[in-house]
Amino acid sequence: MSISPLPQAAERLRAQGRLLDLTESNPTRCDFHYDEVRILAALADQRNLAYVADPRGLEAARAAVRAYYLARGVEVSLENIWLTASTSEAYSHLFRLLADPGARVHAPQPGYPLFDLLAGLNDLELAGYALRYDAAWELDWTDLENALTPQSRALLLLNPNNPTGSYLRAGEWPRLQAWAARHGLALIVDEVFFDYSLGDDPNRLRDATANPAALTFILSGLSKVAALPQMKLGWMLLAGPQDQAAAAARRLELILDTYLSVSAPVQNAAAALLETAPAIQAQIRLRLAANLRALDAALASLPHVSRFAIEGGWYAILRLPRLHRDDEWARRLLEHDAVYLHPGHFYNFQMEGCLVLSLLPPEADFQAGISRLLDRVAAEVAGA
Ligand SMILES: Cc1ncc(COP(=O)(O)O)c(C=O)c1O
After folding, report:
1. How far is the CA of 291 from the centre of ligand 1 (A)?
2. Which of 108, 141, 282, 374 has the most crowded CB, counting CB atoms within 10 A?
3. Which domains does the chain have, with CATH numbers?
4. Is the whole-model pTM more than 0.85?
């Protein structure tokens, strides 16, 4: 996804060591302390010398994924766990499974920009449905109903959403399930950021596998769960009415068997890598909270900029004065202040003046970036 020409200018500034990158969401570049000895030792495994082809993935790795869900109170059988090289790859497999070229899949707006590309690469049409903000983000049912056509095949849900950080509500889940079943749609629930909540809320959907009325796939992976995107291990959980799930499993088996794309080393290391997750997640949560506190402290002095409420995830969203469009704010910040942020339209925001920033960067960089951002807004407001 390109928001040209900003990335090129950002790369130039980065090469000069001048960029304050508030889009950074690669955890391996954010000064966290990984358990390097354990991670590297997990990859030196005698079992890596053997090739065992299993379309679902090696049983030991699936057992590690199962244990991760059990710790969350979610029970899933080994048979319903399918390993992939990434969550992104899982989307592609599911799009192939569920839809023929020209069919429609529905994704939230604002939402994760990669969906446009993933749908396009699979010759599908991506239709947005709105999340509306009124103190919290809520799914707009009317918008969802209106976008539905006979070509609709799947509804993408994010729990929590990227970038809004809003979780699905447990109370909404039976309605979503019934709605999807009525219209013959599958549900794809992306939970890559599930563990990064900013507080506990009993109303959140915790178990998307429970009592499914529609064919349901839950997606996640090491990329966010263990902050190890370079390891390339994702997974899907399959749930649904028995006959539909069995039919989907037969076809998934064929698709995954065609690629067998997950390497033995990462599968054999999966249990050990997942054991490192709690420690790295704890560091990340501390960083997210510290950066959010710094952001709120800085915003207190500038009433022209507001922040949307967040429940979790790695991002914050700001609303700037409507002196400029969001991409113009982003351009000015990059050119004049060497601060790189994503304009809201990159995430398909329908409202103007939104900027999305990552809460992951090291605290000093984050604070310097925020300070320049707010100085720019204050200067432009004063000059307007
Ligand atoms: C919502 C969401 N889903 C999926 C992914 C991709 O994860 P993976 O690295 O497993 O492909 C990302 C990456 O940022 C994401 O934000």
Report:
1. 22
2. 108
3. 6-33+278-383 (3.90.1150.10), 36-275 (3.40.640.10)
4. yes
